[in-house]
UniProtKB/TrEMBL annotation:
Keyword Repressor annotated: no
GO process annotations (BP): methylation
Keywords from the named record: Methyltransferase, Transferase
Organism field: Planococcus salinus
Gene3D superfamilies from the UniProt entry: 1.10.287.1890, Vaccinia Virus protein VP39
Molecular function terms from GO: tRNA (adenine(22)-N1)-methyltransferase activity
Official protein name in the record: tRNA (Adenine-N(1))-methyltransferase
């Protein structure tokens, strides 16, 4: 992978960035995504934010190598601390982190999202955390994708600010309102595997000494299994 040829996962993230955007890519690593967006005329300019010195240096070197220093600024900052009001950022991308970490970044940097029109978020796990944050903070899920790459399954969530936040059901929060409607083969594979894993954990709990914490965890997992199995059964019937 490089700035000219992204992985399929990042290509799908790039696909949801509108033409003419000013992009802030948080946790940019090698800055491949912002470089690709600018090189292909999708983004006018971009900010690549990194909190760790090593990836920050890699991103800077990449931007210099692509001769994009006039259009991409690499900043050493935590989360949305990389974004300044004068930047005029319209799209924020965050890819390759866990859902809870992405949620924390959005929550801690909420005031930096003024003027941002779209969030393109690719959590590696626990996308539910992001959907819960969206509902709580006036962002609508306008699109979702699910894809498989190198035997791993990834979700992409596209959020836009709205005056009227749509409430999501427990199954929509967990599995994704758009993904549930599309009901793709990858979606079915993901949730069939998740259910099997949860059942294995529940089974292993049976032999452990019962504690209030264990009982609560067992109840939580059993609830998830029931929820997911209902969705899979209804769609298949």
């Amino acid at each position: 992978m490089n700035a000219q040829q992204l992985s399929n996962r990042l290509m799908r993230v790039a696909h949801h960035v509108p033409a003419g955007a000013v992009v802030a890519d948080i946790g940019s690593d090698h800055a491949y995504l912002p470089c690709y967006l600018v090189l292909n005329g999708i983004a006018e300019k971009a900010i690549a934010g990194e909190v760790v010195q090593g990836p920050y240096d890699s991103a800077r070197n990449q931007v210099i190598q692509e001769q994009l220093t006039g259009q991409i600024e690499v900043r050493l900052a935590s989360g949305l601390g990389a974004v300044q009001p004068q930047d005029g950022v319209t799209v924020v991308t965050i890819a390759g982190m866990g859902g809870p970490l992405i949620r924390t970044i959005l929550e801690q940097g909420k005031e930096r999202l003024a003027g941002v029109e779209r969030l393109v978020l690719q959590p590696n796990v626990h996308a539910r955390s992001i959907r819960e944050w969206a509902v709580e903070n006036g962002w609508s899920i306008v699109n979702e994708e699910i894809l498989k790459e190198n035997e791993k399954i990834y979700e992409i969530l596209i959020l836009e600010q709205t005056d009227k936040t749509k409430e999501l059901s427990p199954e929509e929060l967990l599995m994704g309102p758009v993904l549930m409607k599309e009901f793709s083969a990858v979606f079915q594979e993901k949730w069939t595997k998740e259910c099997a894993q949860w059942k294995k954990i529940i089974s292993s709990m049976e032999s452990a000494e019962e504690t209030p914490e264990l009982a609560e965890k067992k109840q939580e997992l059993s609830g998830k299994v029931k929820l997911v199995e209902e969705v899979l059964k209804n769609e298949n019937s």
